[in-house]
Design a protein that fits this description.
389 residues; Rossmann fold; seven-stranded mixed sheet; 41% helix; globular
Length: 389
């Protein structure tokens, strides 16, 4: 039996119709995004605020403002340090920060003392994971707080930096470095309640954006089903928000998002790049805006890990507010502070790395300031790749 070939004219017609459908689909998609960009551009021209004014304004209605960072972006850290005088003038005397709580009493004494004691501060901040966090810009937040406290009258309460984290110590148990029964985010929430909420005070909480989630629930991988399906509501911000929902507000600092292709894949631009396009149209000037119940909050994304578990993921699901400080091509990473790694802290670093199971790294990097700087220095290009072009 012979096979009859389909009519070639009919095949060509089907191809043309298919191509036409694709063209219409992509044209509509392109038009739709251009329309989104234009609407958001007009919205931000009317409603966008300076980042500093935006942060301060939120404390009129909220007591606990979470500011989530990517980590190590210099512009983010410098911005937070610059907020201290304005926070205090507006009744906010606490900056909560990711550092080991075991050093709280010493840090309180340092920030209220008449003389600046850098060595004492550095030796206390090297507890736990802090020994890997000797970055100039983060350390400068403490110096800025001390400088500001020198301008206060003796009877005025001092500005505090509240240390949030449990002590991370791989020398105690490499597989359970926080200690038995310690869940890091629950520990952070407990500290915050003790040091801020119980004292009926307000605070800006500057931490990694995952710790800062409030109403948004981070996807969790289900190993039995081999996919992300469960949502985690146990981050520090989730815990505080559940108890004090009317008093919390979550703001995310601009940075790329994790791809839906995995942690090792190239990062993606938030909400399909619309924010980046709008900011470029505005001249890439620093800008802050609300996400909840705004046109900005309606921006959708489906190419990110953060959309897992959500049927129609939008920016307003992710955060209450958003701050843009710089485009990726202008982002700078923090620098290693050589004076942090004196003999005392180098000894702690070497021991910690050995307990982690990194004897070769100890031999190569932990014996000199120059090599430590090389080990800890990261470049944004290594994180953001083609997004910086």
């Amino acid at each position: 039996m012979y096979k009859v070939n389909p009519n070639p004219i009919k095949k060509r017609a089907i191809r043309k119709i298919f191509c036409l459908m694709l063209l219409v689909l992509f044209s509509f998609s392109g038009y739709s995004q251009k329309n989104e960009i234009e609407m958001c551009y007009e919205y931000l021209k009317r409603h966008g605020q300076s980042p500093k004014d935006y942060i301060i304004s939120k404390f009129k209605d909220y007591d606990y403002v979470f500011l989530g960072e990517y980590h190590r972006i210099k512009q983010d850290v410098d911005f937070v340090a610059s907020l201290i005088p304005d926070l205090y003038k507006n009744g906010v005397r606490n900056l909560a920060y990711e550092c080991e709580y075991s050093s709280q009493a010493v840090v309180d004494d340092i920030l209220s003392a008449k003389e600046w004691n850098e060595q004492l501060l550095y030796h206390n901040l090297s507890a736990g994971f802090g020994v890997f966090w000797g970055y100039t810009e983060y350390l400068n937040i403490f110096k800025k707080a001390w400088d500001f406290n020198q301008t206060l009258e003796p009877n005025q309460p001092k500005f505090r930096i509240v240390l949030l984290t449990a002590n991370w110590n791989p020398c105690r148990d490499k597989d359970d470095p926080f200690g038995e029964g310690v869940y890091p985010d629950e520990f952070m929430a407990d500290v915050f309640e003790k040091e801020v909420i119980s004292k009926q005070e307000k605070a800006l909480i500057f931490c990694g954006r995952h710790h800062a989630f409030t109403s948004y629930q981070q996807p969790v991988y289900d190993f039995e089903q081999g996919k992300f399906i469960r949502l985690n509501n146990k981050r520090m911000g989730n815990i505080i928000h559940k108890k004090y929902s009317e008093r919390t507000f979550n703001i995310v600092l601009h940075a790329p998002w994790t791809s839906n292709k995995g942690w090792s894949a190239q990062y993606v631009k938030p909400v399909n790049g619309v924010i980046d396009s709008v900011m470029e149209k505005l001249g890439n000037i620093p800008k802050a805006f609300d996400a909840k119940n705004t046109v900005m909050g309606q921006l959708k994304a489906n190419d990110t890990y953060y959309a897992f578990g959500y049927e129609n993921f939008k920016l307003e699901d992710f955060c209450d507010g958003y701050i843009f400080l710089a485009p990726y091509k202008e982002m700078i990473f923090v620098s290693v502070e050589s004076s942090f790694y004196d003999r005392h802290n180098r000894k702690i670093l070497k021991q910690t790395m050995k307990c982690q199971g990194s004897p070769l790294l100890v031999r190569w990097f932990a014996n000199s300031k120059r090599m430590i700087k090389k080990m800890l220095t990261e470049k944004p290009e290594a994180h953001f790749g083609n997004l910086m072009k």
